[in-house]
Design goal:
The protein is mainly beta. It has one helix and 22 strands. Strands 1, 3, 4, 6, 11, 12, 13 and 17 form an eight-stranded antiparallel beta sheet that branches.
């Protein structure tokens, strides 16, 4: 499953409840439920029966403006319901964003964005890839500067450009419901995430298998530093740590990746009090 980082605005695993790892509160409407029938990670997912949805109060985190962002999720649709939407805002005929909108004929899964609330002047029917019934697929919409990228299962499907700023939301945010058309998403949603960074601008692997371990290092100033690393990277760190004496001043470089940005953070041996692998 995906992990929270400093650029995560919202992350719901749907493994046992509607908990958002960033602290936001989502409320079930209708018969929205956690189900073990379908899932990508954790053995459970959100089930929406075609007449239910989730809401959370609007906050500045959902005001994307002209900044970078990524919205991605796994879905398992059980029917082609017209205009059913994964993410939207309960705000008029043209809400700021409509993400994961479907069509009756099983066409593309698409996105619409507005800057003015009266037309889809930023994106209109932006294609994220075809829909598939009764099949788990990963979809993502990414903004990097003035360029938008659409992905299905990690494969680039569309690009578009616009300098316009997305209209600020002023109403509740919804998962699975469109107030303008009174339509609902039918099926299962798993690992729903919103980020305030462009996580991908080219083809990628949507499976988070390479960074599914967390190394937490506590330093002598009592601060904790977290690193998402592969098992091999953690083993290399432990081997380095065990080789050194308590008087050693050498440092170890640990990779930190946030979206498309990669950096190396060096930790001095003499400053490490303890570490744990989660």
């Amino acid at each position: 499953m995906y992990q929270v980082d400093t650029n995560t605005v919202s992350l719901l695993h749907f493994d046992g409840d509607f908990k958002d790892e960033t602290g936001k509160v989502w409320t079930a409407n209708g018969s929205a439920a956690i189900s073990s029938v379908q899932s990508k990670f954790g053995g459970k997912s959100l089930y929406l029966d075609g007449s239910s949805y989730l809401t959370t109060p609007n906050s500045n985190d959902f005001n994307f403006g002209s900044g970078d962002f990524t919205i991605d999720w796994w879905e398992y649709r059980t029917s082609f319901a017209k205009t059913s939407r994964v993410l939207s805002v309960m705000q008029g005929k043209y809400p700021p964003f409509v993400v994961g909108q479907a069509s009756l004929d099983g066409g593309p899964n698409y996105v619409c964005l507005t800057s003015n609330g009266s037309s889809w002047d930023i994106l209109n029917g932006f294609n994220l890839g075809t829909q598939n019934l009764n099949q788990l697929n990963h979809y993502a919409i990414v903004r990097n500067g003035n360029t938008f990228y659409g992905f299905k299962n990690g494969v680039l499907t569309s690009t578009a450009t616009s300098p316009l700023s997305i209209l600020a939301p002023s109403a509740n945010i919804t998962i699975g419901y469109d107030v303008a058309d009174n339509s609902f998403f039918p099926g299962y949603i798993d690992e729903f995430r919103i980020s305030n960074i462009a996580r991908w601008t080219e083809n990628f692997d949507p499976m988070p298998t390479k960074t599914n371990n967390l190394l937490r290092i506590t330093l002598n100033d009592s601060s904790d530093h977290d690193y998402q690393l592969s098992a091999e990277e953690i083993a290399a760190f432990v081997k380095w740590y065990n080789r050194h004496a308590s008087t050693d001043t050498n440092a170890y470089g640990l990779s930190k990746k946030i979206g498309t940005q990669v950096s190396t953070e060096y930790v001095a041996f003499e400053k490490i009090i303890s570490f744990e692998v989660i």
